[in-house]
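Working notes for the structural subgroup meeting. M.R. asked for a predicted model of this chain before we commit to crystallization trials. I am recording the input and output together here so anyone reviewing the notebook later can reproduce the run.

Input as submitted:
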Amino acid sequence: MIESAAAPISESLIRQYDVSGPRYTSYPTADRFVEAFTSDDYIQALEQRRSGAAAMVLPLSLYIHIPFCESLHTRHMGLGQVVSQLHLGGGSPTFMSDAELRELMGMLKRNFTFSPGGEYSIEIDPRTIDASRLDTLAELGFNRLSFGVQDFDPAVQKAVHRVQPAEQVFALVAAARQRGFESINVDLIYGLPEQTPESVNRTLAQINQLKPDRIALYAYAHLPERFKPQRRISSVEIPTAASKISMLANSMAALMAAGYVYIGMDHFALPNDSLAVAKRQGRLHRNFQGYSTQPDCDMIGLGVSSIGRVGATYSQNAKTLEDYYDYLDQGQFPVVRGLALTRDDLVRRAVIMALMCQGRLSFESIELAYLVNFKSYFAKEMETMQTQVEQGLVEIEDGGIKVTDKGWFFVRAVAMVFDRYLQTDRTRARFSKIL
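Returned structure, recorded in token form:
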């Protein structure tokens, strides 16, 4: 049993919801983007933002995936746009040299205005950094670090070709705390080759000693046809489905016993971390970077394969360096696909994000914002949701829907009820498991 705030969760319920589904960093999800959405559509969205109220009121979020183009965006949206969130990711950006990182941040600061109270994070491969490099990151304005740990067990690390001693990570986290970084996240993965429930428990015990501010606990998805590095991993070494479920159940119980708050969707945080505070205060948001404390805002995706959101549109850049550079050489945005959201998309996005972030939905707020009768518009969905009501995952009240303590662990399944695209397309193999 997993004990959430007063709700026991059985392994049988976990098994029932051990299915594939979207992560809902957006709705509609990225697999619904179409090539008919071009760079011209993206330019139109940028220029509408520039001339509208959003540019003056709402800050931007930036997601950087190296490499990217410096000048094209500011041509169409103007210099000096305020940024309150930056995430430098896409693999291991700390493979860049200090000089390259300084050049990158210099480019960004020449084109955007960074808010003093913003969240500026970078993904770190512990094998590529030392204490002196932490000084550089602090100097450049990063205030949040995300360490890719995956697992501390030496046999598992060898199996996934990522050997990094636990002592190295402990030393780096201690050094980061000495330098005043506001939040430290650690990424863990369960279901890796050579993992066992017992080895995962040992890693969790070490994590409890490390005590990062946030923990992201992901299920390993073995997709060698999509990810070339996985082709070196033998599928026979991957744990069984039963073992993975045991690992997940044990991990959730151990992290909560260690004092972590379950934020939702694989994420845990210490009670005083800003993410946990935002959840308690109903200020949690969700975007392509995951859960965020920053207000719902447009996101500019810079670099190969980056995804962005501007107004009621989504867009994605070219996924290969060759195509990306080809667009830039022609002076064009490297946008290869995207989506202009319909009215139905916007209504359902509001419903899904309310459930995913606040765990509560007001019928009246949706009706006033989108001029619909909620129970009539979503009659089929409300009927489908009765099963989750009976399972104790949600409560349907006179004025809305509430996700229970137990339901938070299955919030993706709750959100999936309102996904119109899944209702007509039952092929979910392209998604990760929801647990």
